[in-house]
Amino acid sequence: MCGVCSHLDSRPCIILKTGLSLIEEFERITEGLSDALGFTRTIGLGKETVSYEQGGGRGALGEVDFYTSHEGLMLEFEEAMTREFRIPSSLGSPQGSSPKVHYNTSAHFLWIGDRTRQIDGAHVEYFRGIRNPIGVKVGPSMKADELVRLLDIVNPDRENGKVTLITRYGAGKVEDNLAGHIRAVQESGHPVIWISDPMHGNTLTSASGLKTRNFGTIISELTACLRIHAECGSHLNGVSLEFTGELAEDGFSVTECLGGSMRLSEDQLPLRYQSFCDPRLNFEQSLDVAFLISDHFKKERTGSKRSYGDVLYSELGGRKLA
């Protein structure tokens, strides 16, 4: 067992094999985060010792807005959790004079799956009637004109923030589909939020029969999305990941997805495979993705020609951004 990254066998750790380059880049990013937190403490933020719930003031750093989300798959359940309310006055409607609308109270945000997004299907009919912000999974079988017609149905008033498109093509299909979908939405004038789901299109079955995903293909789809959005004059607004910080009984991370800085191999999957559904990134792999994304947007924000993330992308098995 590696003492540096909890690598699971006797092979040299990837961090050591690459001259500590990954550790150096991770430390560079965490030092920046530490400096930012230190600055906030210096100017007096985060000093509230009593929480808001216990009578203290509202603090800029001491609170978390917590939202829930799930796929609206079981319509019987979703319908039972639907209630009629007046539009809040905080949204611009005078109290008592606003029309009543339907909200799904089982979650703040619900999405339509790629298998249940039929234009004339029951799921789309239900989703067009609720006031919640909603998501739509967009896969490789979605035609560009079909996507625009779907947006016309669920957001006829073209309300900003109403619809999030969650793309899930697979690393081998993102190049053939994403640009066309972006252009179709741009030409339609529909305001949408774009999110990449690099997990669901990259599921495979190992030789032992376990469902798994390869970290390299996950970040390949993610980096392709970032590049294609930039080339189309669009912007990727978020990433949807399945991950867990859960530890097994022996105190180490789960082993459900291949690769990452741990270089998890196929024969190691059964060691701590705990998911009853889809394979999840473990704690270390989740940090790998977080560092990659944060470094990309830091480069974009600062206009830096050199990206520390170039080292991370190449060593974690993905493709570098153009």
TrEMBL record:
<keyword id="KW-0028">Amino-acid biosynthesis</keyword>
<dbReference type="GO" id="GO:0009073">
    <property type="term" value="P:aromatic amino acid family biosynthetic process"/>
</dbReference>
<dbReference type="InterPro" id="IPR002480">
    <property type="entry name" value="DAHP_synth_2"/>
</dbReference>
<dbReference type="GO" id="GO:0003849">
    <property type="term" value="F:3-deoxy-7-phosphoheptulonate synthase activity"/>
</dbReference>
<feature type="binding site">
    <location>
        <position position="200"/>
    </location>
    <ligand>
        <name>Mn(2+)</name>
    </ligand>
</feature>
<feature type="binding site">
    <location>
        <position position="137"/>
    </location>
    <ligand>
        <name>phosphoenolpyruvate</name>
    </ligand>
</feature>
<dbReference type="InterPro" id="IPR013785">
    <property type="entry name" value="Aldolase_TIM"/>
</dbReference>
<feature type="binding site">
    <location>
        <position position="278"/>
    </location>
    <ligand>
        <name>Mn(2+)</name>
    </ligand>
</feature>
<keyword id="KW-0104">Cadmium</keyword>
<dbReference type="Pfam" id="PF01474">
    <property type="entry name" value="DAHP_synth_2"/>
</dbReference>
<keyword id="KW-0808">Transferase</keyword>
<comment type="similarity">
    <text>Belongs to the class-II DAHP synthase family.</text>
</comment>
<protein>
    <recommendedName>
        <fullName>Phospho-2-dehydro-3-deoxyheptonate aldolase</fullName>
        <ecNumber>2.5.1.54</ecNumber>
    </recommendedName>
</protein>
<feature type="binding site">
    <location>
        <position position="242"/>
    </location>
    <ligand>
        <name>Mn(2+)</name>
    </ligand>
</feature>
<comment type="pathway">
    <text>Metabolic intermediate biosynthesis; chorismate biosynthesis; chorismate from D-erythrose 4-phosphate and phosphoenolpyruvate: step 1/7.</text>
</comment>
<keyword id="KW-0057">Aromatic amino acid biosynthesis</keyword>
<keyword id="KW-0170">Cobalt</keyword>
<dbReference type="GO" id="GO:0008652">
    <property type="term" value="P:amino acid biosynthetic process"/>
</dbReference>
<feature type="binding site">
    <location>
        <position position="168"/>
    </location>
    <ligand>
        <name>phosphoenolpyruvate</name>
    </ligand>
</feature>
<dbReference type="GO" id="GO:0009423">
    <property type="term" value="P:chorismate biosynthetic process"/>
</dbReference>
<keyword id="KW-0464">Manganese</keyword>
